[in-house]
Amino acid sequence: MINNISSDVEVEKIKYKVVEKFVSINGEGQKAGQLAIFIRFQGCNLNCVYCDTKWANTNETKYELMSASQIVDYIKSTKVKNVTLTGGEPLRQENIIYLLKQLSLLENINVEIETNGSVNIAEVKKINNSPSITLDYKLPESTMEKYMDLTNYEYLEKKDTVKFVCSSIGDLNKAKEIIDKYNLTSKCKVYLSSVFEKITPAEIVEFMKENNMNDINLQLQMHKYIWDPNLKGV
Ligand SMILES: C[S@@+](CC[C@H](N)C(=O)[O-])C[C@H]1O[C@@H](n2cnc3c(N)ncnc32)[C@H](O)[C@@H]1O
Ligand SMILES: Nc1nc2[nH]cc(C(=O)O)c2c(=O)[nH]1
Ligand code: SF4
Ligand SMILES: [Mg+2]
């Protein structure tokens, strides 16, 4: 994290590793169906079995080094008002808090971060006009459950989302247990999503009906239905 940034020159030296940036419709989350700018950062501290962006996580991946002001200029050039920061794991980018502060100053721009649930969000929440957070809880079949930082649930606000990406009925049972234990529906939005081609949306709906899961949203990754699910940049 960078403290006491003293000059514009110093600030321009801070660079973020961007593996792709594009405009599409948001296929996920509270702004699903709306135009959004995607900034995808390189590298991740986890390795989920189902990860659909493993290519972004390797050291060999080509990336563009962008300063906060270059990212801001790109955002302004698109004339699109929703921004999704994703990856990889965006909150593992060095000095990401500085970028988030710059983005929080932009008028009429709505910023959200997709984060994996293992990184503490306390510093993000200290920012005025902080971005909304979509916080994954990595379920057993991801093999990454042991890394979840459950202290993050103290900071959740109505504008945030906890998302459970499910591969099986076992995962759904675990999601329900966590939702109930932390009373998540009273704190923020709660989404259930399917690992593409591992469990059908119909099976998730059946589970929701059987378990009276009110105040919870089923989420489909819309972009994977619109385009080839393996296509980058959409
Ligand atoms: C690629 S991740 C990047 C952000 C962050 N690392 C995370 O895991 O939240 C963005 C979102 O895609 C979800 N995702 C990744 N692979 C998926 C798949 N095969 N099916 C459904 N969702 C997937 C993740 O769970 C996460 O919610
Ligand atoms: N269209 C589209 N919507 C998305 N919403 C979240 C995405 C992500 O990879 O985090 C994503 C993505 O990759 N594409
Ligand atoms: S945390 Fe996100 S980017 Fe990292 S491996 Fe899991 S799904 Fe992929
Ligand atoms: Mg994606």
From TrEMBL:
Mention one GO molecular function.
4 iron, 4 sulfur cluster binding
What assembly does the database describe for this protein? Homodimer.
Q: Name one GO biological process term.
A: tRNA queuosine(34) biosynthetic process
Q: Which residues bind substrate?
A: 25-27, 40, 86
Co-factor(s): [4Fe-4S] cluster; S-adenosyl-L-methionine; Mg(2+)
The major lineage groups are: Bacteria, Bacillati, Bacillota, Clostridia, Lachnospirales
Q: Which UniProt keywords apply?
A: 4Fe-4S, Iron, Iron-sulfur, Lyase, Magnesium, Metal-binding, Queuosine biosynthesis, S-adenosyl-L-methionine
Q: Which top class of enzyme applies to this chain?
A: lyase
The record's InterPro entries line, in alphabetical order, gives: 7-CO-7-deazaGua_synth_put_Clo, 7-CO-7-deazaguanine_synth-like, Aldolase_TIM, rSAM, rSAM_sf
Q: Give the record's cofactor note, including how many are bound.
A: Binds 1 [4Fe-4S] cluster. The cluster is coordinated with 3 cysteines and an exchangeable S-adenosyl-L-methionine. Binds 1 S-adenosyl-L-methionine per subunit.
Q: What is its EC number?
A: 4.3.99.3
* Residues reported in the UniProt entry to bind [4Fe-4S] cluster: 44, 48, 51
What is the protein name stated in its UniProt record? 7-carboxy-7-deazaguanine synthase
Q: In which pathway does it act?
A: Purine metabolism; 7-cyano-7-deazaguanine biosynthesis
Q: Which reaction does it catalyse?
A: 6-carboxy-5,6,7,8-tetrahydropterin + H(+) = 7-carboxy-7-carbaguanine + NH4(+)
Q: What is the documented function of this protein?
A: Catalyzes the complex heterocyclic radical-mediated conversion of 6-carboxy-5,6,7,8-tetrahydropterin (CPH4) to 7-carboxy-7-deazaguanine (CDG), a step common to the biosynthetic pathways of all 7-deazapurine-containing compounds.
Protein family membership = Belongs to the radical SAM superfamily. 7-carboxy-7-deazaguanine synthase family.
Outline the extent of the Radical SAM core domain.
31-229
Q: Per UniProt, where does S-adenosyl-L-methionine bind? A: 50-52, 88
Gene from which the chain derives: queE
